[in-house]
Amino acid sequence: MNETKARAEDPKQGKIEPGSQDTSLKAAPTRRASGRKKVVIVGGGFGGLYAAKSLAGKEVDVILIDKKNHHTFQPLLYQVATTVLSPGQIASPLRTVLTHADNVEVLLDELVGIDLEQRHVCLAKGDVISYDYLVLAAGARHSYFGHDEWEEFAPGIKTLEDAIHVRRQILLAFERAEREAFLKEGDDNLSFAVVGGGPTGVEIAGAIADIANRVVAPDFKTIDTRKTRVMLFEAAPRILGMFPEDLSQKAKVQLEQLKVEVLTDSPVETLEAGRIKVKGEWIPVRVIVWATGVSASPIGKMLGIEVDKAGRVPVQPDLTLKDRSEVFVIGDMSSLKDTAGVQVPGLAAAAIQEGAYTAKNILADLAGEARRPFTYKDKGTLATIGRNRAVALFGKVELSGFAAWLLWALVHIYLLIGFRNRLTVMREWIWSYITGERSARLITGNDV
Amino acid sequence: MNETKARAEDPKQGKIEPGSQDTSLKAAPTRRASGRKKVVIVGGGFGGLYAAKSLAGKEVDVILIDKKNHHTFQPLLYQVATTVLSPGQIASPLRTVLTHADNVEVLLDELVGIDLEQRHVCLAKGDVISYDYLVLAAGARHSYFGHDEWEEFAPGIKTLEDAIHVRRQILLAFERAEREAFLKEGDDNLSFAVVGGGPTGVEIAGAIADIANRVVAPDFKTIDTRKTRVMLFEAAPRILGMFPEDLSQKAKVQLEQLKVEVLTDSPVETLEAGRIKVKGEWIPVRVIVWATGVSASPIGKMLGIEVDKAGRVPVQPDLTLKDRSEVFVIGDMSSLKDTAGVQVPGLAAAAIQEGAYTAKNILADLAGEARRPFTYKDKGTLATIGRNRAVALFGKVELSGFAAWLLWALVHIYLLIGFRNRLTVMREWIWSYITGERSARLITGNDV
Hints:
Shape of chain A: elongated
Number of strands of chain A: 25
Strand content of chain A: 15-25%
Oligomer: homodimer
Strand order of the largest sheet of chain A: 5-2-1-9-21-20
Distance between the termini of chain A: 54 Å
Largest interface: A-B, 59 and 60 residues
């Protein structure tokens, strides 16, 4: 154990005299230092949380570090942005999820450095924590393909704060249109752009159309929100590229039923506040939502090895760094072709499998057993399109329309972390389905 | 109607040529200009919202202006700050509440000026709206008695944003204590100060004690949150000064059962980040919540008449300005001794009565009937103290303990705007009562 050394190196901790090293072991970071192996997990998303859950009650000391106090159920974040669900319904405090895991300590802090030689990590508040095993699971954000300045005008949805921000933008767009129409008889053109025709973009575009056509329509007295224009821009020749072509086509038809304009072969050339340039033409839009590209956590770059274009860390078949079998990199942060030669996709399902698998390998080490390489189990892919509509692919089985949508709802309810959240989300969906109401239509924040 | 003039005066609108005045009437702000009297209501709190609701479907055109898109149920804001309820459960979009009120237009904007002579108001985005009747109902915030610099370190709870901010502070205090105790074996002293022993202060202090003793206790593995110190500071010799002395005493006993230290005769001398000075002594505290003092909306000062120390506007018995019978000032913004000589209190119940009363007088004008002076109907006063505990006063009837608490819960459920919210809040309370769980324990915001 090298906590003493780690502390001595940390300038904020002050020097520890050589003679005091023995006693300082008692004051080491773990406090409950038990002689057991120490596993430090960075990130409380799907990968990190499932690793921690799989290690709960085992003969290891686990420290889970996250910037946020909650796990966010990312597949439903877009429903917060589109007023279906409230933030509290898709997020659970990490402490609460892990309340019965006596060997797991949760720390609200941020990783700022890793020393692979000394086996310790440095935290933003100046502390240093040693590890026997390190699990890096800090996820990814959207990539703006070298145009980070676009983010201000075209936010993505990766955190609760992002989702609340986008919800705010969407609702304010209607408010502003109403205001202009009422006071100035002005332009009440309402246009939304969604960039990226993957599952997220498709879900957001469908949900915005649903808000405009159904949810807010009765509440606005001057504008007709059903005249809202929703455009979905996709650079490739078709949306939902990971699905077979006929499902892409079905998704397109379903989006068009919701009056979404599906614009394929339409890469965004540039954008700024209130407009977006596609195929040489500037299109005025009130809100742009970004839903494409992957940019892995900058933590990957701290490792001093070459990462891929998206910032993902290449890993060994057991998800560890080359020559560092104690360092696992999982979820959206890492890049792996598994034993079957399949590139593991950046999905919640994959991160969950990797988290559980990592825990299993750590326990195998402790039991003196051999590790096994990771194999991704494809349990199917789903994309929902507004209310009642979806496409799904399970191996060779394709589904679309209401059946796919129902399946989508059931799968997401099942996966939701925390019994409580499952109940409230299910109730919310049923209520919203029956009444068409939305409970989460608050604009919070300070400027009008 | 003088929209034309108003517009011409507004520098942002540009000049309108004299000859164009006739046609510009059509382009006037109301759009649906009907020849009917126009009522402009500023503020969507209890006063403004009940005025608008009481005018719904009547022969007037109503414009309700608010900086926020939602009505906030202020009496339960402290429950958002203390993790019982989610923001969406105590707030409803104003548009949704007024969806069936075809003659009420809601505008998201901010009042920046009033011209009582010309009878128009100026909005932050540069528009000018004329009125036949003006209802000012913009509420109040807490007062820091000339020390506005304290607000940064001792936030009050008047808006959803405030409540989310305080919730964040409270939850972060526990996170930081756990972090320090785990990593540094350092000071895990957890102290909270609540300033002001009125109903709000009593409710917050009780609720924080409840969080520490019951809600988060099982989730923290290094610190014992039940050792949390909650101090309630009151300048007067007793808390809940508006109640009879024996109820104040009962409230004190109930708070002490929750391990809240009730410190009366203890005005705050000064405070800064992390400490508060009382009776010459600096007391270290992790969080300070401010719950005293009234500072009425600055809109009162735009009227060019003398306001009282708290910024409240003195009004005539019919709640109007002297010599301006078309301008009503209601709710926490105004100050009135009613016909019975009673100073109308700054309570939701009073604002609701004043809003409904104002609408009635406007309709009386239109019907050529005489106005009646306002009389406040005291329907009782309640203060809750954590779970199961409360004090209540109805005329001469006093209640305390569980019976008062149950009554408090029923009254607040009944008053909640919107059928939907009533259901979800009731369900949340019942769930939280039975399980001791809290659903709203998210820390949102960006810094750790």
